[in-house]
């Protein structure tokens, strides 16, 4: 057997004890950080509170999902695209300029209205045509068809 002087053996044992104490302190600090400085009874109460909060969050999530679905339904019916085309209905005569226009207001399904305005020197005429599925039951001018086509492209993109 190896002979080790008593004082060296005592220093080795003391060093091992100090290392174990430091490891124990480090472990205790980690546990306090994990538990937030609470005891076992407080941990149980904290878990009960967390469970209740999770349940309330689940209820909130379900209500929010239902609300978002209703908002989505309403959004589909709202105006999704507004397109305007300016034009001169009296080409060649110089009357009116490019002050005439057609504007389409359509929702996601292509339902809405086309409003057209024809400007001339003497008067302004305004027309409104309902649109269903990107088509009107009334005859549309080329500009009105163009503005509906542009709105359809805008909705589909």
Describe it:
- The protein is α+β, with helices and mostly antiparallel strands and 157 residues long.
- The protein folds into 3 domains: 1-37; 41-76; 78-156.
- The protein is 53% helix and 21% strand.
- The protein has 3 helices and 4 strands, in the order ααββββα.
- The protein has helices at residues 6-35, 40-77, 142-156; strands spanning 79-87, 100-107, 112-119, 124-131.
- A 4-stranded antiparallel beta sheet has the order 1-2-3-4.
- The protein starts with 5 loop residues before the first helix and ends with a helix.
- The mean pLDDT is 88.
Write the layout of secondary structure elements.
Layout: H1 6-35, H2 40-77, E1 79-87, E2 100-107, E3 112-119, E4 124-131, H3 142-156
Antiparallel strand pairs: 1-2, 2-3, 3-4
Structurally, the number of domains stands at: 3
Q: What's the rounded overall pLDDT mean?
A: 88
Helix content: 40-55%
Question: For the terminal residues, how far apart are their CA atoms?
Answer: 88 Å
Oligomeric form: single chain
- Characterize the main sheet: 4 strands, antiparallel
Which segments are poorly predicted (pLDDT under 50) over 5 or more consecutive residues?
Answer: none
Structural class, from secondary structure content? alpha+beta
Strand and helix order: HHEEEEH
What is the helix tally?
A: 3
Share in β-strands: 15-25%
Please state how the strands of the largest beta sheet are arranged side by side.
Answer: 1-2-3-4
**Tally of extended strands?**
4
Structural Rg: 39 Å
